[in-house]
Structure formats: structure tokens, C-alpha cells
């Protein structure tokens, strides 16, 4: 990255305690008035670089599952200041949950989805009735999750649209009343991120699904609770949900890719 004619260059690299690069770490640069003047994520090798005006700066590096790190640096005109290696250490409060069986609390959890409409706006919806369990094993990779969703509970705040989604064109709830997800592998992706591989049965078809999951920690409130946020993308064609209506120039009324978010609180069972 060239040094700008009107300022200087600030760079560094972020690694974990084992010396491995931390891609996607969030870097924020603040001036002396605490105004954020630069912001980015580290690249695939943990590096970052910012062109800034000459002056003194505070640099904040943070990543999920790690303690936030603060550094200070002065940047001179026409010069390149490198921070070198910034090491983030694990946040022990965001290690794996206490082993045991966690019942999903439907009152403090949500299963949401987003679909594209006529390649312009987004339609937001959710399933209002679901249940499930997460079993955290002593050996974390042996953990397991299972979720059962009532297909007829689909809700997008538009009655006619919800009726259409329940029909044979989409979910066909009369024939396939439940959506069922069950995992077959847990793996750590670094920090507080997990990858959960499993199978989703929808519309009578079963397909592999991977949940990109962020562990949010544990809290004591009406029992010991663990929280997580999981996301994935589904392609309707994989589950033979093939209804489609096209507008002029081949624009689909409903996009084929559906974004799914699971916001989950689980209560440890005694």
C-alpha cells in the first residue's frame, strides 16, 4: 500500500496466542479526540494497513472469543509506522459452555429468515413454534444439537403471503408439517466461533447444512443459560421448493437463496 502524499501509513498484523494469523479481526483507529478515523477487518493472513493523517493514534484490535487489545502509535508525514505483531489472548468467559443438556427456551430464542423479493427488497419472516436441545459433551467435538420446527408457524406479517408459504407451492405443511435439523459434527473455527455440520429435512427432502455459530457466553437467570447466534444459507431447489414466477427480463419474484438466523438461549437441565 503506497504512503499517501498528505499523510502516513499505519499497519500491523494480528495473531492468536499460538502465533496463528487471525483473519477477520476488527481494527479501529482513533485520533486524540477519540474520533474513529479508520476501520477495517484483517485480511486472510491477519494483516491490516491504513492511510492516516500525521498524528497520535489509539488502535483497538478485537475478535470474537478474544480479549480486546489497545495500542498507541504516532504516525509522521511520509512515513510508514508498523505496529508489528499484535497478539490477542482468549477470553476465558467465551470458552465452551459447561457440559450438559440445554433445552432451547422458545420465549428467548428465534428462528428467522430473509428472502429477496423481485431482486429488490428483502422479506423478513420467522417460525413462531419450535423446540430443541443442545448437548454439550465433555469432548466438545462430540456435542450434538437437534431442532424441530412447526412449518405452519411461518409468519411474515402478511396473511396472504403466509397462506401461500404454507401451501403446496412452498412448505406444503399439510404433507410436511415439520422441519428437522440434527447435527453430526461440531468443530471450533477460532475464538468463539463454531461450525456445526448437520442435516436439515424440509419439504420431505434432506440436505447437508453448515451453521456458522457464534457463542455468546453464559448467564445465570432462571437457570444457567448459554447463548449463541447461528447463520446459514439455504437454496430452495435443494429441497424441491421450486415454485417460481418470473417478471420481465427473467427477474424472479422470490429469490432462490434464503438466509437463516437462529438466535438461541439454552437452559441447562439439572
TrEMBL record:
Coiled coil: none
InterPro entries: Lipid/polyisoprenoid-bd_YceI
Domain of life according to the entry: Bacteria
Domain Lipid/polyisoprenoid-binding YceI-like: 101-267
Pfam families: CarboxypepD_reg, YceI
Protein name: YceI family protein
Organism for this UniProt entry: Pseudonocardia oceani
Amino acid at each position: 500500500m503506497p504512503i499517501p502524499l498528505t499523510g502516513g501509513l499505519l499497519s500491523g498484523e494480528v495473531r492468536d496466542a499460538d502465533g496463528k494469523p487471525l483473519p477477520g479481526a476488527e481494527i479501529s483507529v482513533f485520533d486524540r479526540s477519540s474520533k474513529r478515523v479508520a476501520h477495517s477487518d484483517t485480511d486472510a493472513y491477519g494483516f491490516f494497513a491504513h492511510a492516516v493523517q500525521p498524528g497520535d493514534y489509539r488502535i483497538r484490535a478485537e475478535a470474537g472469543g478474544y480479549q480486546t487489545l489497545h495500542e498507541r502509535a504516532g504516525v509522521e508525514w511520509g512515513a510508514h509506522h508498523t505496529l508489528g505483531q499484535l497478539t490477542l489472548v482468549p477470553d476465558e468467559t467465551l470458552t465452551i459452555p459447561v457440559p450438559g443438556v440445554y433445552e432451547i427456551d422458545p420465549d428467548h430464542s428465534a428462528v428467522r429468515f430473509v428472502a429477496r423479493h423481485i431482486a429488490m427488497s428483502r422479506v423478513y419472516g420467522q417460525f413462531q413454534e419450535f423446540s430443541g436441545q443442545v448437548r454439550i459433551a465433555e469432548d466438545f467435538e462430540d456435542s450434538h444439537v437437534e431442532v424441530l420446527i412447526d412449518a405452519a408457524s411461518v409468519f411474515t406479517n402478511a396473511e396472504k403471503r403466509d397462506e401461500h408459504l404454507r401451501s403446496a407451492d412452498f412448505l406444503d405443511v399439510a404433507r410436511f408439517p415439520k422441519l428437522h435439523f440434527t447435527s453430526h459434527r461440531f468443530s471450533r473455527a477460532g475464538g468463539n466461533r463454531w461450525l456445526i455440520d448437520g442435516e436439515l429435512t424440509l419439504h420431505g427432502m434432506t440436505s447437508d447444512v453448515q451453521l456458522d455459530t457464534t457463542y455468546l457466553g453464559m448467564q445465570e437467570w432462571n437457570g444457567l443459560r448459554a447463548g449463541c447466534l447461528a447463520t446459514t444459507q439455504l437454496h430452495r431447489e435443494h429441497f424441491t421448493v421450486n415454485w417460481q414466477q418470473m417478471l420481465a427480463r427473467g427477474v424472479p419474484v422470490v429469490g432462490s437463496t434464503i438466509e437463516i438466523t437462529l438466535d438461541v438461549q439454552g437452559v441447562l437441565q439439572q
